[in-house]
Design brief:
With about 650 residues, the chain is an alpha+beta fold. It is about 15% helix and about 35% strand. The protein contains ten helices and 41 strands. The strands form eleven sheets. A six-stranded antiparallel β-sheet has the order 1-2-3-4-6-5, with helices on one face. Strands 22, 23, 24, 25 and 26 form a five-stranded antiparallel β-sheet that branches. It has a four-stranded antiparallel β-sheet with strand order 11-41-40-39. Strand 3 and strand 4 (about 35-40) form a beta hairpin. Helix 3 runs antiparallel to helix 5 and helix 3 runs antiparallel to helix 9. The longest helix is centred in the N-terminal third of the chain and has 20 residues, at about 105-125. About 45% of the residues are buried.
Length: about 650
Amino acid sequence: MTSLPGRIGPYAIERRLGAGGMGVVYLGRDGRGEAVAVKVIRPELAGDPRTRARLEREVRAARTVPRYCTAALLDADLDGPLPYLATEYVEGPTLDVALMERGVLAGDELTDLALGVALALGAVHGSGVLHRDLKPSNIILSAFGPRVIDFGIAQLADSRTRLTDTGAVIGSLVCMAPEQLRAEPLTPAVDVFAWACVVFYAATGRYPFGADSGIRQRVLHDDPDLGQLRPGLAALVEKALAKDPRDRPTADDLVAGLGTRTHIEETATFPRTEPVVSVRPAPPGRRHARRGGPWTLVALGVVALLAGGTGWWWLARHDGVLGSQGDRVTALTIGTLRDGRPVAVSGAADGMVAYWDLKDRKGIGDVAAYTRTGCEIGALATGTVDGRAVVLSGGDASCSTGLLGLGQKHDYSIIAMDLATRAHLFTLPESGGGVSEMALGTVNGVPMAISYDGSARLWNLRTRKEAKKALRLQNVHAVGFRDGRPLVLAHKGKTVVATDLLTGKAAGPGIGLAAGGAGADLATLAGRTVIVTYAPRRTDGPDLVRMWDLTTGRATGEPLEVPADMKVIGTGMAGDRPYLMARDRRYAQYAWSLATRVRTGPLKGHKDIINDVAFGQIDGRPVAISAGWDKKVRIWNLK
C-alpha cells in the first residue's frame, strides 16, 4: 500500500480520494480542521513545462468561475518542488459513479440533472471560460446542485495560447464535439455538445455516438438515435448535438428550454460563499469573476430549484452507509445532543447498540452491550432527562442459550445511557415481558418514559419507579408524548384509540379501522396531534394512509395511496413534519412527506428485510435512517 504524505503545504493529509494521469487528489485538513481537496502533480511530471502549464490553466479558470458551480479554489503553490492546488472539498458522488450504483435516470430526475448542469455551464461561460472536457466523471452531485470540476484543459474565451501542438486533440472522445476532433477554434458550443452527451448517457447508460473505435466517424457524420428520450428533452439534445457549433443553443437557451420544470414553493438561503482559507492574490491585471449581471439570475435559479419539488435526485437516491453491526438490526432512533448535533442509535439482535454521528456519517466509540444477557434490542428511545440527552434501550423476547441453543434466557430490562458519553446512567426494574415500544418525554416538568411489554407502563425517571399502575392492552401500535400527555395508541375491536396513561381514559373519540393488516402512529401536523393510519383498501389493493385529528376524530386532508406492491415500514417526525416510509418487493424504499405528499425515491441499497426506520434532521434538512437483516445502517436525504 502506498504511504500517505503527512503534509502537503499547510494541509494535514487524511486519505487518498482518487488519482488521474496528471496527479493524485487527497483529503486534507487546514489549520482550522476544515476539509479540503489537495491535488498534487505526480513527481515524474512536476518538471514538465506542459504539465505545469495545464495546472496554471486550471488555477486561472478556477479563480474566474463562480464557486457555486464548481469546487472553489482555496490555495495553490505552483512554484514549489511538488506543485499542488487546494480546493473546497465537495461531498457527493460523481455522476458516473452515481449512475453505476443507481441505474439510469428518467422523468423529473433526468430533467433536474439536465437543468442543473446547464445552469452550471451557463455560469462557467458567463465568466469567460470554456471547460472543454465536460463528462460524467467531471460532475460532482453535491447537496447544492451539480458542481463541474477539473478545469485542467479549460480555456479562457479570450485566450490565444494553446496547451497542445497544432492539430492535436485533447479531451474525452465520448463527449467530444466535431470541431474538437478537427482541432478547430472552440466556442462555448463545445460544452453544449458535451452537455447533450452527458444527458443522453444519464438517460440510457450509453453515449450517443458509442465508445468504440468508430466514434470519430460517427461524431463527424452520423446522427444518433434519440428515441429513448422523451420528446421535449430529445428536441433540446438534438439541437445541442448539431454538427455546426453555430446551430447549437447556448447554455442560457438550455436553461430556458428546461425551466418549465420548476416546483417553487418556498425560498431558500444560498450557501455560504466565503473561502475557508484565503486564496493567494491573482496575478496583476487578472479579471475576477463578475458580480451580478445575467448569471446572478442563474444562481438564483439554482436556489429556487433546490427549494421546491423533490429536490436534487441524488440526495434522495444516494446511499450513505453509516456502518454495520454484527447481527441484524432490530431498532433505530435519532436523538439530539445539547449542542444540536444529531446522533442515531441502532440496536441489534445480539443485544449490542451502536452510535452514529449523522453529520459526519461515522460511528461514535465502540459498540456497547445494552442488555445483560445478549438478547435482542426490542425498542430504543431518545430524549432529555434534566438537561441530559439520554437513550433508553429495552430488551425483547427470549434468547436461546446452552448446548445446541436448547436453553432459554431472557432480558426485559430498560437501560438508560448518556447519549453524549455513552456512560450507563441507571436501569429500570425488569418487567414481565419483552419491550416492543418505548418513548421519552415530560409530564408537568417531570421526565418520564413509556414502555410497552404487553402492559403499557409509565415511568418516573427521577424516582426510577412506575408513576401509575400498568395498563394491560393488546394490539398496541405506538406510544408517545403529545401536548404533555403520555399516550398509547392501540386497537380496541375495530377502533384505534389513543389512551392517556395518567387518566386511563381515551384522549379522543377513536378512529374506525379494521385491525387486520392495519397500522397506526402518532404525529404532529401544523401544531396539532394527529393519528396516522394505514390499511389496505382491499386484500390485493394499495394501502390508504390517512391522518385524523386526535381530539375530534375527523380526517385531515385526502388519503395518500401507497402502491399495492409496497409495504409500509413506519412513520415518524423529521423536525415538525411527519413522514412515511414504504418498501417494494426488492427492498427499494420510498418516503412520503405527509404534509406535502411529495414522494422521494427509490432509495436503493438494502438487500434484505428492513426492520425499522427513524426520521430526523441535519441542519434543518429532513433525513431518514433504515436498517434490518443485512446488518447495515443507511442514511437517506429526503429533500
